[in-house]
User: Which sequence fits this backbone?
């Protein structure tokens, strides 16, 4: 009997230990974010890397998601003569859920992986130790600018993704399915509420923090050469993706269940 | 040795999990002295200097720098103490996203908040001191050969004019001629700065070149130390075996037949 329970217990303890370490790492990063020196140039560079250079991939994801949403909801809704609800469904689904989650997942693949690989390589080639010997706190120099950039850039990305997604849906609805352009836009604008958009942007900020935190944490603690860096990269993307999906549910619960 | 030692290590223990790497190291380095710690791979040399630098936290023991206890220092006090240290890493550990001169000037710009133009001037002068021309300063580390990278790393280690410089395997991976160049540069730089030097190496040629005093670490303890000239008359079988590079002796590598 103990033979069966032992690995389960070990896995649980291991998971809790990891959770504790990540929490301590995040706490240290947040504390050092408020103490000088501040590296605004690095923050700017990271913001451009996350916010600007992720635009194409996030935009493509958003436009096709909006398009397919309209197509699928049309096949369903037309059976009940409920086509007029389509703009509503599309804009709410995009701003509340799909915008932040898909942008978060795409950025986890693009940015989280790159951060884990870069910081992981710096760890195994002793560049992080070198920072310390050059009177530079690696937490402040490497981790804080990335976390803050993720926190700020994702809401911006998601706002753009929301607009592009709605536009994708609009194009299909009007040019393929024969919706009236003015009515479609009116329905979209009338139905969407501030809470829809704001909840999506808050989610985006949380996901941005999670993606960069996972990238930095796994990179920072990578061990043993190329294989270690590879494992760190995988762990960063997988853990960020799972956390995004779990936290998305929890945040939806917080915002909308009453 | 006269006067108070620059660095005094007593009873230093450090283990990783069940593996005891340092088991009570006793070592002191006088002001302006060049100490070389020799020992085989995995004997704890790197761990020892990482403990002195404060990159690793020892389990127990004391490390005095200028008579001040450094074990357990954190934050600003730790950074202030590190300011007087310079370190040449085994793999050079240059920041590959920065130009050569920015690498050399890093500690001045980030650590001492020096003006970039002034820091560049100093960086180019330090590059000149290790035999690299100004145009090299504009290159990226990946564009340099291993020997040049080592010289850039040396220039970076001495840029802040530290009072203690650590050298981690300075000649490993270099051809014999470049190794000699690096040895001579180390002697010159240490003498010009009047600095205290602590090196770790398993290259006996290098050790004889740069050491005033040699200490041998084996199995986590210092088993012999004395003036460099007396290393051939140590009378210690471990030291004898090491300096003559013999596979047979008290230091045994268990090898099984194929």
Assistant:
């Amino acid at each position: 009997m103990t033979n069966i329970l032992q690995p389960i217990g070990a896995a649980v303890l291991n998971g809790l230990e990891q959770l504790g370490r990540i929490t301590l790492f995040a706490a240290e990063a947040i504390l050092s974010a408020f103490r000088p020196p501040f590296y605004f140039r690095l923050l700017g560079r990271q913001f451009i890397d996350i916010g600007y250079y992720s635009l194409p991939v996030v935009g493509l994801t958003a436009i096709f998601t909006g398009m397919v949403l309209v197509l699928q909801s049309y096949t369903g809704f037309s059976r009940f003569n409920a086509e007029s609800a389509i703009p509503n469904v599309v804009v709410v689904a995009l701003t509340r859920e799909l915008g932040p989650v898909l942008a978060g997942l795409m950025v986890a693949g693009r940015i989280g992986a790159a951060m884990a690989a870069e910081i992981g390589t710096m760890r195994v080639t002793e560049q992080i130790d070198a920072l310390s010997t050059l009177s530079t706190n690696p937490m402040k120099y490497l981790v804080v600018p990335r976390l803050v950039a993720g926190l700020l850039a994702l809401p911006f990305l998601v706002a753009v993704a929301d607009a592009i997604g709605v536009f994708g849906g609009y194009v299909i609805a009007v040019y393929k399915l024969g919706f009236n352009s003015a009515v479609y836009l009116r329905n979209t604008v009338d139905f969407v509420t501030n809470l829809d958009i704001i909840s999506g942007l808050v989610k985006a900020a949380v996901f941005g923090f999670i993606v960069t935190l996972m990238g930095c944490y796994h990179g920072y603690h990578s061990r043993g050469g190329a294989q270690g860096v590879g494992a760190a990269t995988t762990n960063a993307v997988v853990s960020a993706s799972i956390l995004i999906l779990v936290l998305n549910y929890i945040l939806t619960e917080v915002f909308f269940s009453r | 040795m006269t006067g108070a030692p620059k660095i005094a290590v007593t009873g230093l223990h450090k283990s990783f999990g069940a593996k005891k790497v340092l088991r009570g190291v006793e070592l002191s380095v006088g002001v302006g002295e060049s100490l070389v710690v020799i020992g085989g791979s995995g004997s704890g040399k790197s761990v020892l200097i990482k403990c002195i630098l404060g990159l690793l936290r020892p389990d127990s023991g004391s490390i005095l720098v200028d008579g001040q206890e450094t074990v357990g220092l954190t934050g600003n006090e730790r950074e202030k103490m590190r300011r007087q240290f310079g370190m040449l890493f085994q793999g050079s550990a240059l920041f590959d996203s920065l130009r050569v001169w920015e690498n050399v000037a890093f500690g001045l710009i980030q650590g001492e908040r020096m003006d970039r133009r002034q820091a560049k001037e100093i960086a180019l002068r330090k590059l000149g001191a290790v035999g690299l021309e100004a145009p090299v300063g504009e290159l990226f580390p990946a564009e340099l050969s291993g020997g040049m990278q080592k010289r850039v790393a040396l220039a970076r280690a001495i840029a802040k004019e530290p009072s203690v410089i650590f050298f981690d395997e300075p000649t490993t991976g270099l051809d014999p001629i470049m190794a000699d160049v690096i040895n001579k540069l180390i002697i010159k730089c240490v003498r010009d700065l009047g600095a205290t030097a602590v090196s770790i190496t398993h290259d006996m040629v290098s050790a004889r070149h740069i050491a005033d005093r040699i200490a041998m670490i084996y199995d986590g303890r210092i088993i012999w130390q004395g003036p460099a000239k007396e290393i051939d008359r140590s009378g210690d079988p471990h030291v004898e075996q090491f300096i003559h590079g013999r596979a047979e002796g008290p230091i045994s590598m268990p090898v099984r037949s194929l």
In short: The mean pLDDT of chain A is 93. The radius of gyration of chain A is 21 Å.
